[in-house]
Design a protein that fits this description.
The protein has helices at residues 24-34, 73-84, 99-108, 130-139, 148-154, and strands at residues 7-10, 42-46, 58-60, 92-96, 112-117, 142-145, 166-168. By secondary structure, the chain is α/β, with parallel strands linked by helices. The protein has one domain: Rossmann fold. The termini are far apart. The relative contact order is 0.13.
Amino acid sequence: MSQSLKIATILPYKENYTFQKAQAAAIWVCDFFKYSKFKNTNFIFGNTKGNDYLTKNYINISINNLKSKFSSSTNEYCKNFIKKTKNDNFDIIEIHNRPLVFNYLKKEIDSKYILYFHNDPLSMNGSKSINERLKLLDELDKIIFVSKWVQNRFFEKLDDKLINKTEVVYPSIHKEKKIFKKEKK
């Protein structure tokens, strides 16, 4: 793979990407980004209040109707993402924890898609039913799970032979160097 891959990483619109209020998926994305060889061509998108972003490559997607009962926040988020990136041609679009965002964007943007599951897929719209999960397996280029448990939940009542387009990637672990001070005797 070339180091010039252009990647869009899309966080759930409810996921905060600030130092003060970062949540699990945001921290996972930030940790992986720090060690990525694609740092210069990877852009992270989300909907965050505040501006102390975890990384400099973050681009905020505003949503006006976040708590509206009459319009879909997911649809607005996707439409605003498309407007903001209409002149960008991403080689890969990574979507975290939102199968419905994939279903929306796939119709509008031609790209390779990777879907990351951080939580139970059977509790998310777009991956609750067997047919929804089979469709995701068919249409996505890759599905990544943050644990074996999450992967097993996705494959509940599905044929394990379909597992070849999936992978488990655990949250990154960065070993801190320990500095020991000699004790005075």
